[in-house]
Amino acid sequence: MSTSTGAIIPITMPKFGLAMTEGKIASWAKPEGAAVAVGDELADIETTKITNAYESPVAGVLRRHVAPEQEDLPVGALIAVVADPSVPEVEIDAFVTRFQAEFVTRQSVEATQGAPAPATIEAGGHSLRYLELGQAHEGRPIVLIHGFGGDLNNWLFTQPALAGQVRVIALDLPGHGGSSKQVGAGDLAALSGALLAFLAAKDIPRAHLVGHSLGGAVALRTALDKPAHVASLTLIAPAGLGTEIDGAFPADFISAGRRKQLQPVLQKLFADKSLVSHDMVEDLLRFKRLDGAKEALSAIAEANFGGGRQQEILAGRLPELGDLPVQVIWGELDEIIPASQARSLPGSVRVQVLPGAGHMPHMEKSAEVNRMILGLALG
């Protein structure tokens, strides 16, 4: 191996969520020979769930597209090579050949080890499903809290990326995903109580909370009620900061029983409507068929969004948080909760409104959102 081989950097098919086993390059954003910086968009990667822009994890020259467009490849497969211009083509040829041969061996080992799987824990009278990654990292964990109708899979572009640097746990709230469907009053107090019970059951005295939509309001209510348990708050398109909301969304989400009914409802969540895939719709329809799921969602919707408006407004209580680090991230094109609700927040709250994103900026602008989450938690 020559000394210049050390300058060859492989770019591999990323893993977006536990369910992803393969993906394909929908289109390359950078041509061969282009200089790339960390964070530059390299390609759009398509999975059965969603298509996501993949940003370069390294800086250098994109010497070769190894993966052609529209070809299914397993997670971890070589898709491109970044190398210094001085590296000869023959060395890149040898690197690609060696990587692909070794990849076959790695696949066999990983197949026997299996992927991390969600677990359940009894807490506060609930059976709560959660997924934990990055357990080897020390320090306070990040806990991810999804929004209304979601589950821990909503963090498929977030959790694996964060787990490289910090312990990170994604939780299914009561009434959602694989958690039990008894929700009590279903209001913020009940959901926050379940979150606190989960932290106690996992022996987590303090955590960085990241909440989306309804999960943002749950995280904020938790910090207001039990500030000693919260190290920082990242609120993504959060509920709880104003009365306005798309009042039809919760009811339409609950009542839709077929793909053609649910798809346009889900499209409201994204600026790019094409991100709502067939599999995404089918997964949600299967969840809603679970015993007690619709009843749980109805109770939560009535408690939090009854009458077509948000019921508990916490914006006026933000000064109670004192010097707790708080940031709010919103998609400029949010059709569910308007980003204008971030305008009147205290100056101590960091606010970032992302252009080209809707109600799910952690999916549409995942790399930017991930950097902001880590910046606050590790800062």
From TrEMBL:
Keywords: Transferase. Transmembrane segments: none annotated. It comes from the Bacteria. One of its GO terms (molecular function) is monoacylglycerol lipase activity. GO terms for cellular component: membrane. Gene3D superfamilies: 2.40.50.100, alpha/beta hydrolase. Residues 8-83 form the Lipoyl-binding domain. The keyword Transferase applies. InterPro entries: AB_hydrolase_1 (IPR000073), AB_hydrolase_fold (IPR029058), AB_hydrolase_sf (IPR050266), Biotin_lipoyl (IPR000089), Single_hybrid_motif (IPR011053). This is Acetoin dehydrogenase dihydrolipoyllysine-residue acetyltransferase subunit. Pfam families: Abhydrolase_1 (PF00561), Biotin_lipoyl (PF00364). One of its GO terms (biological process) is acylglycerol catabolic process.
